[in-house]
Amino acid sequence: MVVLYSMTPSGSREDQSLDVRGMERSQSYAKAVERLGEMAENDVLELCIDEGEPLRTIPFGLRAEGHEILVSEPSQHGVRLLVRKRALLA
Known about the structure:
Layout: E1 6-7, E2 13-14, E3 16-19, H1 25-38, E4 44-49, H2 53-64, E5 68-75, E6 78-84
Parallel strand pairs: 3-4
Antiparallel strand pairs: 1-2, 4-6, 5-6
């Protein structure tokens, strides 16, 4: 599901939305990276992930690639992240 330019309760704009709950962690991470790669710099991705291992590793990996985690909050059946796309580190 893609959501274009909706406003979150915190006032942040999300340009796209991706729900990877229920997927294997490595597949979830790969889908998030792929989606971010399709987005323009400074766009915001709403990413819904599972708690546990995905929450411990996915945000870390996205930060390591230079992206910014704006929000990490509990949501129904998982965690909701808002990730701002940044240029990949060289």
